[in-house]
Amino acid sequence: MLADAANLHTFVDAMRFIGDHPGFLAQKALEQLELSGAALGIALVVALPLGVVLGHFHRGSNLAISASIFGRALPSLVLIAAFLTVLGIGFVNNMVALAVLGTGPILTNSYDSVDRVDKDIVESARGMGMTGRQILGHIELPLAIPLLFTGIRISAVTIVATAPIAAIAGGGGLGDIIVNPASYRLSGVLGASVCVMALSALVFVALAGIQISVTPRGLRGTTVIGDQTRKEHA
Amino acid sequence: MKGHWGDTLQPALVQHVELTAIAVVIGFAIAFPLALLAHRYRPLEHPIGIFSALLYTIPSLALFQLLIPFTGLTRTTVEVALVSYTLVILFPNITAGLHSTPDEVLEAAQGMGLTRLQVLLRVELPLAVPAIVGGLRVAVVSTVAIATIAAFLLPDGLGYPIVLALKEPTPFKTEIYSAGVLAIAFAIACDLLLVTLRRFLVPWASKGVA
Prior knowledge:
The structure holds two protein chains of two kinds.
Chain A: H1 2-20, H2 22-56, H3 61-73, H4 76-87, H5 91-115, H6 119-127, H7 132-162, H8 175-178, H9 181-214
Helix pairs in contact in A: 1-9, 2-5, 2-7, 3-5, 4-5, 5-7, 6-7, 7-9
Chain B: H1 2-40, H2 45-56, H3 60-71, H4 75-99, H5 103-111, H6 116-147, H7 159-167, H8 173-201
C-alpha cells in the first residue's frame, strides 16, 4: 500500500513538472523534432530513390534484406557513440546516426513495395506500350504506396523514439532532461518521459493519417498499420 | 583492450546475454498462448495488433524511466520493458504463421477426420514454424539492441561501458568500439543460431534463403 501511494505521488509530481514548465518542454520537444526531421530527410533522400529504382529493376534484393537485418542489429546507442568519436559532439553526429537508423526500413520497404507489384499488371502495362518510366510512375508507385509509406512511418517513429538517447551525445531535446536526473530529479525525468511518449505517439498517428490520405482509393483497405517491416516467413 | 576483457567486457557480455535470454524466453511464453487464443477467437487479433503497434512506438528510454516508480532501479524494470517489446514482435508473427495454412490443407485435414486439436498440433503448428522462427529472429536481434539502453538505469549489459565512456570529457574510443562490436557480434551470432535451428526444424523451407 505504501508503495502504491509513493507511485501515485511520483506521477502527480511528474504531471506538476509538466504543468510548471510547458514552455521549456515545448522548446525541448521542438529541438527533438528538428533533429528527427533532419535525420528523416537524409534517410529519405538516400534510401527512397535507391529502393524504388532497385525494386523497379528487381535487382539487389540482397541489399534490401541486409538493410533490414543490419538495421535491427545496430544498437542505436552504439551508433550514436561511434559517430560521436568521428564527428564530435553535437547536432551533426546525432543527425547522421539517426539517419543511418532510419535508412533500413525505408530502403527495405520501398524495394519490397515496388518489387512485389503484381507481375501481370506490369506486363499488361508494357503490352499497352507504356515506357519503363510510365510504368514506374503510373502503375508501380501508386500500387506500392501502402507498403512504402509503412516503411517511412516506421523509420520516422524509430528516429523520434531514438532521438532522446542522442541527448547523451549532445543531441538536445527532451532527452536532455531524461539523462540528467541530478538536475531535474525523478519528477522531471518522468515528466519528460511522458512527453517523449506523447511525441512518438503523435508522430505515429500523424503519419498514419497521412498514409491513409495518400493511399489511392482502390487500395484503402490494404493500408498496413501493423508494424512488420518484412514478414520473415522465408 | 586486452586489459579490460576480464574486468569490464566479459561481465558486461554475460549480463547482456542474461538480459536478452530472460526477455525472449518470458516474451515467448506469453506471446505463444496469446497467439493461440487469437487464432481460436479471430476478433481478438486486430485489437491486440493495434495495441502492440502503439506500444512499440513508446521509446525504450521513456518506458524504462516510467517503470521506475513501480519496480525501482532494478533488473525487473529492464526486463518488463524488454519483454513488452518482444511481445509486440512475437505475437503478430506467431498469429500470422498460424493463419497461413492454406484452406485446402485445412479441409483435407478435416476430411481425414482430424480433430481441432490434431489439426493444430499436426498441421497448423508445423506449418507456422518458419514464421515463428522469423519472429524470434527479429525479437532477439531487437532485444540485444534495446538492452544496451538499460545502461541508462543500471550498470548492466554492454551499454554500460559505452555510457561510462561517453561521460568522460574526451570519450574513450576503445570502450565504445569494443562494447559496440561485441553487441553487434552477439546479435548476429543469435541470428545465425536461429537460422540453423530453422534449417533443422523445417528442412523443406530453407531452399536458397539466407
